[in-house]
Amino acid sequence: MATPSEKTALIADGKSAEKEQHLKELKSYQKWAFFVTFGGYFMAHFSRKCYSTVKQQLQKQAGITPLVLSEMDTTFMATYAIGNILSGKAGDTFSPTTVLSIGLFGSGFCLFLINIALWFDFVGFSESLGNFFILAVYFVFGFFQSTGGPVGTAVMGNWFCDPESLKNRGLIFGLWTCHQYMGDITAAVCTAIVLGAGLPYWWALLIPAVTNFLWGFLTIRLIGDPADAGIITDEVRARQEKQAAQRAAGHAVSADIAPISYLAALRIPMVAQYAVAFGFFKLTNYVLFFWLPYFLGKHFDPVQANLIAALYSVGMMPGGIIVGVVSDWFGGRRASVIGVFMGLLVMFLFIFAEFSEVLGAGSLLMMLAIMGILVGGPNNIITSAVAADLSSHPSVKGNSKSLGTVTGLINGTGAITASIGLLAVGPLQSSYGWHAVWYFLIGCTGSGTLLLAPKIWSEIFPPADEKIDIAV
Description:
The chain is an all-alpha fold. The chain has helices spanning 4-53, 55-60, 66-93, 96-119, 122-125, 127-145, 148-159, 163-167, 169-176, 179-196, 203-219, 234-248, 262-267, 271-296, 302-329, 334-355, 361-390, 403-422, 425-432, 434-451, 453-460. The radius of gyration is 24 Å and the shape is globular.
């Protein structure tokens, strides 16, 4: 007969074996979760960018005026910003993979409706009704497009929760955020192939519509949370311990996890600061992305101007990976790394403000590639690894239904702030020149960095009497 100590050892061995099995199952599914969510956000950018690659054809062949094209952009940005906040909450409240699938199906359907409007010449039949139909479709399109960021990040956070993944969270999410650039590049290549082959331009809209539908069917079969597959992670164990403690205290415990509210998300330390700071950083990105070709076109021919401006976008892709890896090296001190990157960006913006009009093409190419890394890194990592860090705060530990809401708040608030800030660029440029615009961006970058100052300070000088999880 086994002694009590032997029984204890057997139980411990059994639990250890069970834990190893759950970890093995978790790790085996991570690659699939990465692939499907990466592809979903890739499809979102593919379908979003394809429209902008055929703007010239929409104007010349479909008769859509530049004003309506501009209104389509504005409408999309507004509903996309609001949609981020709503989609994040929806992903935490309902099945996240269902929400992602709805976004993909809806995006594909909206592009198909645009194609119908082009095939049957709605604008030619009635300009006012045709324009209204297209704007209405783009109004809805923005909401469907908003699901990929916050909900995809939540699914990634659910699956990449083991100690090894947490240690390399910056690298994992840095690689994952390359989806947007690959989607943008694919859209440009797809349009080039369509037009080069002599096909009607609307094929550039129909192809992403079909691929969105197909990826939606793939996504709906994805398991959004390890717990749904019977895999017990540390987060699930923490949740079970909380529930056991509540039952022991005589409280009624629901089997379903209640998603956190917007107010509860904002109460998590640094969520509000990151949300506003991200708005300032996103504004800097928007201005450089949208206005660089226009600014450079004053000093270079159109081909050179677009080539130089493209280097900024190219630099953004490795930016998230670099920030993620470096912050992993320094124990998850992401705010400090972001602060260094933003400090360097201020320096480059100052050089740009003073000397951009006299610098040669070679110098500008190098500067803009570096500026792409400096801007892209923090922007990508805040809405992925940082959001995952914030949603792991002890106040919500064990609740897997927080990451979507947190990411949506940061993304949505950032998009709203950046959209409002963009309104200042035109008047500043026309009244005071480009110097004023670059100094405006220095002010925005500095303001965003200052909002992160408390977090940077606590990462560099953690309280001696407290054991702090730096990443949170």
